Amino acid sequence: MKIKEIMNKKPLTIDQGKNALDATKEMNRVKKEEIIVVDENKKLLGIITERDLINKVMVKNKKVSDVNVKSIMTRNLITINQDKEATEALFKMRKSSIRKIPVLDSESNLVGIITDFDLAYAIELIDILEKKLSMSVIPNKVDSEIIEDNCQICGNFDNNLKKVEGKWICENCRDETNGNSANYE
Q: Can you tell me the distance from the alpha carbon of 20 to that of 145, in angstroms, rounded to the nearest whole number?
Protein backbone atom coordinates (compact mmCIF):
# COMPACT_ATOMS: atom_id res chain seq x y z
CA MET A 1 0.00 0.00 0.00
CA LYS A 2 1.40 3.38 -1.03
CA ILE A 3 1.85 6.27 1.39
CA LYS A 4 -0.36 8.53 -0.73
CA GLU A 5 -3.27 6.11 -0.26
CA ILE A 6 -3.32 6.42 3.52
CA MET A 7 -1.67 9.75 4.40
CA ASN A 8 -3.50 12.84 5.61
CA LYS A 9 -3.52 15.01 2.49
CA LYS A 10 -4.19 18.23 4.41
CA PRO A 11 -1.52 18.55 7.07
CA LEU A 12 -1.85 21.39 9.54
CA THR A 13 0.70 24.10 8.71
CA ILE A 14 1.84 27.37 10.21
CA ASP A 15 3.96 30.18 8.80
CA GLN A 16 7.47 30.49 10.22
CA GLY A 17 6.75 34.04 11.44
CA LYS A 18 4.05 32.94 13.92
CA ASN A 19 4.51 32.28 17.61
CA ALA A 20 3.94 29.26 19.84
CA LEU A 21 0.59 30.61 21.00
CA ASP A 22 -0.64 30.73 17.39
CA ALA A 23 0.57 27.14 16.89
CA THR A 24 -1.10 25.96 20.10
CA LYS A 25 -4.41 27.61 19.24
CA GLU A 26 -4.41 26.12 15.73
CA MET A 27 -3.49 22.63 16.98
CA ASN A 28 -6.25 22.83 19.59
CA ARG A 29 -8.80 24.12 17.07
CA VAL A 30 -8.42 21.07 14.82
CA LYS A 31 -7.45 18.57 17.56
CA LYS A 32 -4.00 17.76 16.14
CA GLU A 33 -0.84 16.81 18.02
CA GLU A 34 1.48 18.40 15.44
CA ILE A 35 1.80 21.39 13.16
CA ILE A 36 4.21 21.73 10.25
CA VAL A 37 6.21 24.95 9.95
CA VAL A 38 6.49 26.28 6.39
CA ASP A 39 8.05 29.29 4.71
CA GLU A 40 6.19 31.83 2.55
CA ASN A 41 6.43 29.42 -0.42
CA LYS A 42 4.90 26.61 1.67
CA LYS A 43 8.21 24.74 1.76
CA LEU A 44 8.75 22.45 4.73
CA LEU A 45 10.99 23.91 7.44
CA GLY A 46 10.16 21.86 10.51
CA ILE A 47 7.51 20.39 12.77
CA ILE A 48 6.19 21.24 16.22
CA THR A 49 4.56 18.57 18.36
CA GLU A 50 2.73 18.81 21.68
CA ARG A 51 5.90 17.43 23.26
CA ASP A 52 7.93 20.32 21.79
CA LEU A 53 5.49 22.84 23.27
CA ILE A 54 5.70 21.21 26.69
CA ASN A 55 9.48 20.68 26.78
CA LYS A 56 10.63 23.84 25.02
CA VAL A 57 8.07 26.35 26.26
CA MET A 58 6.01 25.23 29.25
CA VAL A 59 8.74 23.48 31.26
CA LYS A 60 11.08 26.44 30.70
CA ASN A 61 8.31 28.80 31.88
CA LYS A 62 8.47 30.87 28.70
CA LYS A 63 5.63 33.15 27.65
CA VAL A 64 3.94 31.28 24.80
CA SER A 65 3.21 34.41 22.77
CA ASP A 66 6.90 35.47 22.91
CA VAL A 67 8.28 32.23 21.46
CA ASN A 68 8.68 32.08 17.67
CA VAL A 69 7.77 28.72 16.10
CA LYS A 70 11.15 28.53 14.36
CA SER A 71 12.91 28.51 17.73
CA ILE A 72 11.08 25.41 18.98
CA MET A 73 10.46 23.43 15.80
CA THR A 74 12.30 20.21 15.07
CA ARG A 75 14.52 20.70 12.01
CA ASN A 76 16.24 18.25 9.66
CA LEU A 77 13.12 16.15 9.49
CA ILE A 78 12.83 12.59 8.34
CA THR A 79 10.49 12.72 5.36
CA ILE A 80 9.10 10.20 2.92
CA ASN A 81 7.98 10.32 -0.69
CA GLN A 82 4.27 9.79 -1.30
CA ASP A 83 5.00 6.96 -3.77
CA LYS A 84 6.86 4.81 -1.24
CA GLU A 85 5.32 1.77 0.43
CA ALA A 86 3.67 2.22 3.83
CA THR A 87 6.03 -0.36 5.29
CA GLU A 88 8.93 2.02 4.63
CA ALA A 89 7.23 4.71 6.72
CA LEU A 90 6.73 2.19 9.51
CA PHE A 91 10.40 1.21 9.32
CA LYS A 92 11.50 4.87 9.50
CA MET A 93 9.23 5.53 12.47
CA ARG A 94 10.52 2.55 14.40
CA LYS A 95 14.17 3.22 13.55
CA SER A 96 13.98 6.88 14.57
CA SER A 97 11.43 6.59 17.40
CA ILE A 98 9.04 9.05 15.79
CA ARG A 99 5.31 8.93 15.22
CA LYS A 100 4.79 11.41 12.39
CA ILE A 101 6.49 11.85 9.02
CA PRO A 102 5.89 14.69 6.56
CA VAL A 103 5.16 13.39 3.07
CA LEU A 104 6.71 14.99 -0.01
CA ASP A 105 6.13 14.69 -3.74
CA SER A 106 8.91 14.13 -6.29
CA GLU A 107 9.69 17.89 -6.27
CA SER A 108 10.02 18.01 -2.46
CA ASN A 109 6.70 19.81 -1.97
CA LEU A 110 4.77 19.03 1.18
CA VAL A 111 1.72 16.96 0.18
CA GLY A 112 0.72 15.33 3.45
CA ILE A 113 1.67 13.73 6.71
CA ILE A 114 1.55 10.12 7.82
CA THR A 115 1.27 9.08 11.44
CA ASP A 116 1.59 5.89 13.39
CA PHE A 117 -2.20 6.00 13.77
CA ASP A 118 -2.66 6.15 9.97
CA LEU A 119 -0.43 3.09 9.59
CA ALA A 120 -2.19 1.18 12.37
CA TYR A 121 -5.57 1.95 10.80
CA ALA A 122 -4.36 0.81 7.37
CA ILE A 123 -2.95 -2.42 8.81
CA GLU A 124 -6.22 -3.08 10.64
CA LEU A 125 -8.20 -2.40 7.46
CA ILE A 126 -6.00 -4.78 5.47
CA ASP A 127 -6.48 -7.45 8.14
CA ILE A 128 -10.27 -7.05 8.01
CA LEU A 129 -10.27 -7.22 4.20
CA GLU A 130 -8.09 -10.33 4.22
CA LYS A 131 -10.49 -12.02 6.65
CA LYS A 132 -13.49 -11.09 4.50
CA LEU A 133 -11.74 -12.38 1.39
CA SER A 134 -10.85 -15.64 3.08
CA MET A 135 -14.50 -16.11 4.02
CA SER A 136 -15.60 -15.69 0.41
CA VAL A 137 -13.40 -18.50 -0.89
CA ILE A 138 -15.26 -20.81 -3.23
CA PRO A 139 -15.78 -23.91 -1.11
CA ASN A 140 -15.37 -26.49 -3.88
CA LYS A 141 -11.87 -25.23 -4.61
CA VAL A 142 -10.58 -25.46 -1.04
CA ASP A 143 -8.39 -28.40 -0.14
CA SER A 144 -9.21 -28.21 3.59
CA GLU A 145 -11.47 -30.86 5.15
CA ILE A 146 -13.36 -28.30 7.29
CA ILE A 147 -14.05 -24.71 6.23
CA GLU A 148 -16.10 -21.64 7.15
CA ASP A 149 -18.63 -20.58 4.50
CA ASN A 150 -22.28 -20.98 3.52
CA CYS A 151 -23.74 -24.47 3.43
CA GLN A 152 -24.49 -25.56 -0.13
CA ILE A 153 -27.75 -27.18 0.99
CA CYS A 154 -29.45 -24.72 3.37
CA GLY A 155 -27.35 -21.63 2.58
CA ASN A 156 -26.64 -20.82 6.24
CA PHE A 157 -23.18 -19.70 7.28
CA ASP A 158 -21.30 -22.28 9.34
CA ASN A 159 -17.74 -22.62 10.59
CA ASN A 160 -17.80 -26.41 10.43
CA LEU A 161 -18.63 -27.30 6.83
CA LYS A 162 -17.50 -30.68 5.62
CA LYS A 163 -17.29 -31.89 2.08
CA VAL A 164 -19.74 -34.69 1.32
CA GLU A 165 -19.74 -36.00 -2.24
CA GLY A 166 -18.46 -32.70 -3.66
CA LYS A 167 -20.69 -30.35 -1.61
CA TRP A 168 -19.81 -28.34 1.50
CA ILE A 169 -22.50 -29.14 4.06
CA CYS A 170 -23.21 -27.90 7.58
CA GLU A 171 -23.66 -30.23 10.54
CA ASN A 172 -27.46 -29.82 10.58
CA CYS A 173 -27.83 -30.80 6.93
CA ARG A 174 -25.42 -33.71 7.44
CA ASP A 175 -27.54 -34.90 10.40
CA GLU A 176 -30.78 -34.56 8.43
CA THR A 177 -29.46 -36.59 5.53
CA ASN A 178 -27.35 -38.97 7.63
CA GLY A 179 -24.64 -38.42 5.08
CA ASN A 180 -26.84 -39.74 2.25
CA SER A 181 -26.22 -37.48 -0.70
CA ALA A 182 -29.30 -38.74 -2.50
CA ASN A 183 -31.44 -36.73 -0.05
CA TYR A 184 -30.07 -33.34 -1.17
CA GLU A 185 -29.00 -33.63 -4.79
A: 64
CB 1 within 8 A of CB 90: no
List of residues 6+ apart from 44 with CB closer than 8 A: 36, 37, 38, 77, 79, 102, 104, 108, 110
Res. 151 pLDDT band, cuts 50 70 90: confident
3-state DSSP assignment of residue 57: helix
CA torsion through residues 85, 88, 93, 94, sign:
positive
Q: Hey, what CATH topology would domain 3-126 get? A: CBS-domain (3.10.580)
Query: Is the pTM higher than 0.70?
Result: no
> Nearest CA to 113 among 39, 42, 35?
35
User: For residue 156, which phi and psi values (nearest 5 degrees)?
Assistant: -75, 145
Spatial distance between the Cα atoms of 122 and 155, rounded to a whole number of angstroms: 32
Residue 182, burial from CB neighbour count under 10 angstroms (0-12, 13-18, 19+): exposed
Pair 103, 7: CB distance under 8 Å: yes
Show me where the domains of the chain are located. Answer: 3-126, 137-177
Q: What is the pLDDT of residues 97-133, one digit of tens each?
A: 999 999 999 999 999 999 999 998 888 877 787 777 7
In a 3-state reduction of DSSP, which class is residue 167? strand
